[in-house]
Write a structure and sequence with these properties.
five-stranded mixed sheet, mainly beta
């Protein structure tokens, strides 16, 4: 059980693998290539990300929410558990959900609009509307692909095929795909029914449920670039139609409304009194407006800034469907509620700030479903209490870093939640949410763990903030190069232009050297106490890109548009004097003398004004580097990936195999195999096995999501990705990809066997059956050695194959027969154990309720070299054999000696052998006694095994016997990786002697019973 107390992975792993290769083989698709045998695992944290789309089913405990790049999730228990319903079923190229609408007349019909419309710099575009007719079991495309952003959807309450959608269109450039669209055939065709101009989109849309031809829409003139956001203009306004979109009236020109330039606005109609309409307005004289005559006239009822601050990001309002005087307004500090028609407002404290959207159950308005930057939450008591949001794996991470712990820990910053670190595996058989702890510092920073001391991390916040955090003491300290915090300042006012995701890293060649990127490269060799500038301004330094942002109505200077600066830095792991720098305005520089001289080496083929999103310095050649560039904020979605082999003098674009619209974020090289590259893109991960000559998707079971960064742990053989909507994911068995890149599989007549990745004897790995019953936890790596093999096209279906595991001396440890393997790539997980002992037929082991497992599992091997041999009998074909070697290693946190583990194994094998011999003898005795019904034989069997246990805790009624005592002792000896105690050896000697004596008594009784049995048999045949 080593390895077994809180995890039942040992036997389960073997049974699961065998079941995969037998029972399901008839229905499973044959993998096309070895890559398809790999699998991503979600490691967490289950801490919710931004949600701007929610919907519910009136009167039912059924709620939907959409992550901004996390797909659609459903809860049927008031938000206690959220389950994804679009992974693998939504045919969209984007999992960014901007709107959800349930058809009032048929709750099985749901529309989803992709592409959020909160136009942050990191927002994710979509590709239209999708529809389900079976409550999310299947989805189909329903039009408007080129809109990119869907801000709202409303459905006619009588006819689910009449649907309206509002769109902001392409936010980064003027275009015609903006406005209000209508379909009367369920999304098969659409007609644009409201369009202002190519710079103005539609941000909100509501319908009078009592009069479905009456709709209100808010139009918003807005655009953004990487360095500025502009909210407001002459195109903004509130429009009303009373004939289903055929004609519209601009209500912002009616009496009482805000005058002057208008920005973002939200609108709501009171279902209980449709003459009451509310609007929340961005304007110099903006605020909350109420109309009592359907928008013919208005009065401003509240002008407080708490309701309309940061207008581009909020400005939504929701009238209670049963009471026209109750109205909700989400904003940064709270979900605000008014119960007097919008005059006075009080706070409802949701689990997270930055609130965006509310759904109010029209049949029970005490029930609220709310979306914010921390996820979705449900209240059943008017907002007094809420369901938690740390049960949704929808976190938007920007970057990922790994440390040198075992198992390695994962570090990253999550949008609007801050920075976290957590283990890639834990002893509990799963990675719970509370295994993730705070790191330094902000929501978009690179996080740099200090080499040699993972308790200490470095990370940045807004503007000048740069902090060191020591988790062992809980202390933050500033290490900023210039700690002048100028919140709200424009880029041109700052000494150092630290952008939204400026790089922070330690040199791979000098663990004391910390680097940070502004418009300059800054270096510290004393952990941030002093700093040296080692470069000139490496950006274009164009004054037009450094002006105030957020106008023309209100500034919005949060540091999100600080520009231009460095967005990527890389130090050669071969030569610390070679440093690469990439700016967010499209320049690449390199120094080979640690900053004394810099060369401008931007790829000439790269279009101007691109964000150099990553640079990867080669692990094998000092002059080689890879880079990715992104231009999605220029409305250019092409992939840009380049390689140089001569310090940037020449570059070659390497995008073969990538879709033309698959823009990219990060490229990484495997330290062990130079030809193996990984690429994080807008939708998934790509891999190249030939140094970038050709890319192929490595999506596997990974949800469709932006992959912002990739990190590799070569020691444990894992790849980790930071997704911008589904938290962190890890891919085990890097060794398989390395062998594919090298073409090093053993091939025997078409049968291929890959060397298993090194396996670890550790308490950290392995899954738990209990974990499968707990939602929203991270998944551990499997325990043991993973064997990949391919039987080739000549395999005769149904023929068994054999896997034999042996040690370095040629001793056979385990032989497994697989009866129904695939014709393609197969996977078998060996749990590093010897074969199990024989068990007693009819014996039911009790559950280990606070005690030890009563199983017949074989002992675990010791560290060393092992082999796996694949034997294929062949049938009508020639027999084939292939063999590979691999290592089994001890967790470096454990300190048992080889002698300790050899002694432990020797004792376990003695106990195991005694248990196996006893159980075999018992089985023969029980079989004989089933015919003889001998009282003496029954009594002796009863002294050796307890057959009266028929329930999980039957041992509290019926004392366990010798067979269980041996199994318990084996479990106790195997709890840890240590030498056995003297007491364990003594008890083993005593139990083994008892077993030998019991076997002898059984043999005597069976021998004495042979003659009566033969006489009985002769009488039977006569």
């Amino acid at each position: 059980m080593r390895r077994r107390m809180w995890r039942s992975f040992a036997l389960a792993a073997v049974l699961t693998a065998t079941a995969t290769l037998s029972a399901t083989a008839a229905n499973a698709p044959i993998p096309a290539q070895p890559l398809d045998a790999l699998r991503w695992r979600s490691i967490g944290p289950a801490i919710g990300g931004r949600v701007v789309a929610v919907a519910g089913v009136p009167g039912e405990n059924l709620f939907y929410m959409g992550g901004v790049d996390g797909g659609i999730w459903r809860s049927t228990d008031y938000g206690l558990v959220w389950l994804n319903i679009t992974d693998g079923t939504l045919p969209s190229a984007s999992n960014s959900i901007g709107a959800i609408a349930v058809a009032p007349s048929n709750a099985s019909i749901i529309y989803a609009g992709t592409g959020e419309s909160d136009i942050r710099g990191d927002f994710v575009t979509g590709d239209g509307v999708y529809r389900t007719n079976d409550a999310g079991k299947s989805w189909h495309y329903a039009g408007l692909a080129d809109t990119h952003t869907i801000s709202a959807i409303v459905v006619d309450p009588q006819d689910p095929n009449v649907v309206y959608a509002s769109s902001m269109g392409h936010v980064f450039k003027p275009n015609a795909e903006r406005g209000i669209f209508k379909s009367i055939d369920g999304g098969r065709s659409w007609r644009k029914v409201l369009f202002v101009d190519d710079r103005t989109g539609a941000i909100d849309l509501v319908m009078d449920p009592n009069h479905p031809d009456v709709l209100y829409a808010t139009m918003w003139q807005a655009y953004r670039t990487p360095w500025t956001l502009q909210s407001g203009g002459p195109g903004s306004g509130i429009y009303k139609t009373t004939d289903g979109g055929a004609h519209w009236t601009n209500l912002t020109r009616t009496p009482g409304f805000a005058r002057g330039l208008l920005g973002r606005m939200g609108v709501s109609v009171a279902a209980s009194d449709p003459s009451v309409v509310y609007a929340i307005v961005q304007a110099h004289d903006g605020g909350v407006f109420r109309s009592n005559d359907g928008g013919a006239s208005w009065s401003r009822v509240n002008a407080e800034w708490k309701l309309r601050q940061r207008a581009f990001y909020y400005m939504a309002i929701y009238a209670d469907p049963t009471n026209p005087n109750i109205v909700y307004a989400p904003n940064v500090d709270a979900l605000w509620v008014s119960r007097d028609g919008g005059k006075k407002w009080s706070e409802l404290h949701t689990p997270h700030g930055d609130n965006h959207i509310v759904w109010i159950d029209p049949r029970n308005p005490h029930i609220l479903l709310e979306g914010n930057d921390g996820g979705a939450t449900v209240s059943t008591d008017d907002g007094e209490t809420w369901s938690q949001e740390h049960n949704q794996s929808t976190g938007q991470f920007y970057h990922v870093a790994l440390d040198d712990e075992f198992p390695f820990h994962v570090y990253g910053a999550q949008q609007d939640e801050g920075s976290f670190e957590g283990p890639s595996a834990t002893p509990g058989g799963m990675i719970p949410v509370d295994a993730w702890q705070r790191a330094a510092y902000g929501e978009s920073t690179f996080v740099a763990p200090e080499p040699g001391d993972p308790d200490v991390t470095y990370g940045s916040g807004y503007f000048s903030i740069f902090l060191r955090y020591d988790s062992s003491t809980g202390e933050y300290s500033s290490v900023a190069p210039w700690p002048l915090y100028q919140e709200g300042a424009a880029s041109r006012e700052l000494r150092y232009r630290f952008g939204w995701t400026h790089p922070v890293l330690f040199s791979p060649t000098n663990p004391k050297e910390l680097l940070i990127g502004a418009q300059y490269v800054l270096v510290s060799d004393d952990y941030g106490q002093t700093w040296q500038r080692i470069s000139p301004d490496l950006t274009r330094n164009d004054p037009r890109t450094e002006a105030p942002t957020g106008g023309p109505i209100d500034l919005d200077q949060t540091s999100a548009e600080v520009f231009p600066g460095m967005c990527s830095l890389a130090v050669s792991p071969l030569d610390g004097n070679v440093i690469w720098a990439g700016s967010d305005d499209g320049l690449v520089h390199v120094t080979t003398d640690h900053g004394a001289h810099w060369s401008l080496v931007t790829p000439p083929q790269l279009p101007q004004w691109a964000q150099i999103s990553s640079i990867e310095a080669s692990h094998t050649e000092a002059g080689t580097a890879y880079l990715t560039a992104s231009r999605y904020m220029w409305d250019d979605f092409h992939p840009y990936v380049y390689v140089t082999h001569d310090y940037g003098r020449h570059w070659r674009r390497i995008t073969a195999g990538l879709p033309d619209d698959e823009y990219v974020f990060a490229v990484r090289q495997d330290p062990n195999e130079s030809n193996l590259l990984f690429l994080g893109t807008k939708n998934t991960v790509y891999v190249s096995l030939d140094g970038g000559m050709y890319w192929q998707p490595l999506a596997l079971n990974l949800p469709r999501v932006q992959v912002r960064d990739v990190a590799i742990d070569a020691r444990e053989g894992e790849v980790v990705v930071a997704t911008h909507g589904r938290s962190f994911w890890a891919l085990d068995n890097l060794a398989l990809l390395e062998q594919l890149a090298r073409g090093s599989a053993v091939d025997s007549g078409g049968v291929r066997l890959w060397a298993p990745q090194g396996a670890w004897l550790t308490h950290e790995y392995g899954s738990s059956a209990f974990a499968r019953r707990i939602p929203a936890v991270g998944e551990n790596p499997p325990f043991g050695a993973t064997v990949f093999f391919d039987l080739g096209s000549a395999y005769s279906r149904g023929l068994p194959i054999h896997l034999t595991f042996g040690d370095a001396s040629g001793n056979v440890i385990r032989r497994v027969t697989l009866y129904h393997p695939h014709a393609g790539t197969n996977v078998y997980q060996w749990d590093l154990r010897y074969a199990p002992a024989t068990d007693v037929k009819g014996f039911r082991p009790p559950v280990a309720a606070g005690g030890l497992d009563d199983t017949v599992e074989g002992p675990t091997v010791v560290p060393g070299a092992y082999t796996v041999t694949l034997d294929y009998p062949g049938g009508h074909y020639a027999a084939r054999r292939a063999e590979q070697s691999f290592q089994v290693m001890l967790d470096p946190n454990l300190h048992a000696t080889s002698a300790d583990l050899e002694a432990q194994l020797a004792l376990e094998l003695r106990i195991h052998g005694a248990l196996d011999r006893l159980d075999r003898t018992l089985n023969r005795a029980i079989a004989m006694n089933d015919r003889l019904h001998s009282a003496a034989l029954s009594a002796e069997i009863g002294t050796l095994v307890q057959l009266d246990i028929h329930s999980s805790e039957g041992d509290v009624l019926h004392e366990t016997k010798l067979r269980s005592h041996l199994a318990y002792l084996a479990a106790e000896v195997g709890l840890s990786y240590t030498a056995p105690t003297a007491a364990e050896n003594d008890v083993a000697d005593d139990l083994i002697a008892q077993a030998q004596h019991g076997e002898a008594r059984l043999e005597t009784l069976m021998s004495s019973a042979v003659s009566p049995l033969r006489r009985a048999m002769r009488g039977h045949y006569l």
